[in-house]
Amino acid sequence: MPPARVAHPGLKSPEYYVPGLAADDVARRYGISPADIAKLGSAENPHGASPKARAAIGDALERLHLYPSWTAEPLREKIAEVYGYEPSQVVCGAGETEIISLVIRAFCPPGGRIQMPGPCFPIYHLFAETEGRVPVLVFEATDRPSMALDVDAYLAAVDDDTRIVFVTNPHSPSGTWLSESDVRRIIEAAPRALVVLDEAYVHYSATPGYIHLAREYDNAVVLRTFSKAYGLAGLRVGFGVASRPIIDALLAVKPTWNMGGLQIAGGIAALDDDDHVARTVATIAESRHHVARRFGELDRFRMVPHSRSNFFLVEIVDPDTDSNAVFNGLLERGVIVKDGAVSWRGLEDRFLRCDVNLPEKMDHLVDALRDLD
Ligand SMILES: Cc1ncc(COP(=O)(O)O)c(C=O)c1O
Question: Domain for residue 89, yes or no?
Fold first, then answer.
C-alpha cells in the first residue's frame, strides 16, 4: 500500500479525543441494566434536554427541506439580543468544539504557539497539533498542585510569538474559578494574541460569567455551549462573541452551512428556557454539596475542593493503586468516570474526573469507591 498522502506531519499519526464511555456499552459489557449505570464521565445534564428546545425542534421538522441561513442568522440575532451584542459580533458552531477549531485555523499560522493551561480540555491541543500548530501547556509552578490556574506562571509564559491563549472558566478538569481581575490580567498581558475565554460550564458557577469582556477587549473571544445547562449535547450548538473583525475571520473559515435548521431552532428556544437552566443549576449545587459530605467517609480517595462546575477531581490518596485500576473497578460496579491518565495530558495516574449528577448517582459513586477500599 502506498503511504497515505497527508498535508503535514501532525496528521501522520493523529491522536483522537477520548470521550466518556457510553452507558449502553458498559451495561452490555458487565451485564448491568442501563438504568443501574451512573454515567459520570461526560458532564451531561441529569434533567435531559430543555423542553422548550425539544418542542421547537419538533416544529422545525416541517422545514427540513429548506437550506438554513449559512450564518444561523436567527440564532445569532437571539444570542445578540440576550447578551447585548450586535448579530455581526456572534458566530455559531456545531458545539464550542467546532468554534475552537475555527479559532485555531483563523488566528494561528502553522508552526505558531498556542498557550493553554496544563491540564486542560484536550480538544485545544488535539486540534492545534492536527493543524500543525504548537500547543504550549503551562503547569502550576509548585510541587503540590492545587489544580487551580497559576495566573502568575500563566502570564509569564506569554511571549511575542504566542498567537492564542486559552482560558477555561470554570476550568476543566478541576472546576476551579478565576476572578474577573485575573481574567482581565491575562487578556491585557497578551495584546498581540487572541485570548479565548471558554465558558462552557459558566451556568454552574452561580455568576453571570464574563461574557461582557468581549465588548471591552478587541483581543478576546468568549465561547459558550448549549451542551451543558441546556441539556443539548446531542444537538451540537455553541457560539462565540467577539469584535466584528474576529467574527468576520471565523465566518470565512467556517464550513458554509455548519448549522442545521434543528440546531438553530433548538438554540433559540433554549435561550428562553430559564426554568430548565434554573432547575439544572439547583440540582447540581445541591448534589455537589451532598457528594462533598459523603466523601468524608472515604480514606483512600479525596475530593479536590473548590469546583464551581458540574464535575470535580478525585485524588487517589492510596499509593498502592492508580487511576486505571480505580476506573476499571468503578466500571465493574456500574460507574463511568474519566481516568485522568487517559483523558488529560499532564494529569497522570493519581486523578479521576467525576460528574456531579443526581444525588442517588453520587451515592452510587461513593458506595462503589468504598467497596473498592
Ligand atoms: C471546557 C470545555 N469546553 C468546551 C467543550 C465543548 O462543548 P461542545 O462542543 O459540546 O459545545 C467542553 C465539552 O466537554 C469542555 O469541557
Answer: yes
